[in-house]
Amino acid sequence: MPSRPAPSPPTTVPRVWHPVGDLPARVYWRRRLVALTVLLAVLGGAGWLGLAMLGQRDGDDAAAVSGTRPLPVPALERVVPSLSAVATPDPPALPTEAEVAAPAPGPVAGGPCTDEMLGLEVRTPGSAAVGSKPTFELAVANVSAVPCVRALDKGLQEIVMFDGAGTRVWGSNDCFPEASSDPRTLAPGEVVTLPIVWGGLTSEPTCTAPRGAPPPGTYVLRGRLDTKVSSDASITLG
Predict the structure, then answer these.
(1) For labeling, which of 34, 143, 154, 192 is most exposed (least CB within 10 Å)?
(2) Which spans are transmembrane here (predicted)?
């Protein structure tokens, strides 16, 4: 019967650290050192590569946050602006005591009469016969406290008549305009009456339409002295 090979001795820690073989022990120890060195180099290289990749990813994330990708704006900032962006108006300057005590500038004596310094009124006889030639008056009064100068030229005087529906019936400057130069100095409270005669016929600004006597009824008269306009007065034709 052939003989069986002798079983190999069991592997134990002492046998690993103290191998037994045909070669000298230093050969086996040199092999172990080479294998251990290679293993440590592989583990060290893998660790360094992992740290490098982690550092690069952190750098990319930081660059993306600070450079290309804007930080999200909080919801409250989108609705309510920051206080630094709200412009605060400067408070209005308060008047000084001298400005408060100083009287408001009034009309200058001897200067021009403004519309606010004048009163203007149309005076009528109240009634007139159809086709008659009544005389109207423009009453100009200086209602200020100082004398002033106003031009009372005939070209600046006008009375216009309207019917009850507001249609223009007649104007004193339509067919017979007059021109004159008449600057007047009006004393405080002084009233100057300027007579204007109506021929009793209708007219329009070009005086080209047929003219005729307006029918009986109540009409409105409105006066003007350049830019000053009077209140309305009435006349009844019968």
Answers:
(1) 34
(2) 33-54
Residue 53's pLDDT is 72
Q: Which two tokens stand for residue 197?
A: 């005669």
* Cβ contact 199:138 at 8 Å: no
* Domains in the chain: boundaries: 13-66, 115-237
Specify the pTM: 0.56
Beta strands 127-128 and 228-237, pairing class = parallel
Nearest C-alpha neighbor of 191 from the set 135, 123, 237: 123
Please tell me the predicted confidence (pLDDT) of residue 33. Answer: 77
Residues of the chain scoring pLDDT < 70: 1-23, 25, 27-28, 50, 52, 54-89, 91-92, 95, 97-106
Phi, psi for 67 (deg, rounded to 5)? -115, -75
Are the C-beta atoms of residues 154 and 216 closer than 8 Å to each other? Answer: no
Closest CA to 126 of 202, 193, 219: 219
> What does the alpha-carbon distance between residue 16 and residue 23 come to, in Å, rounded to a whole number?
15
| CA 87 vs CA 40, 78, 81, 117: distances in Å | 67, 17, 11, 45
Task: Find out if CATH 1.10.3430.10 is the number for domain 115-237.
Answer: no
- pLDDT for 139 equals 98
pLDDT of residue 42: 73
pLDDT value at residue 89: 65
107-108-112-113 Cα dihedral, nearest 10 degrees: 30
Tokens read off for 20: 């037994």
Residue in the structure block whose two tokens are 């017979």: 176
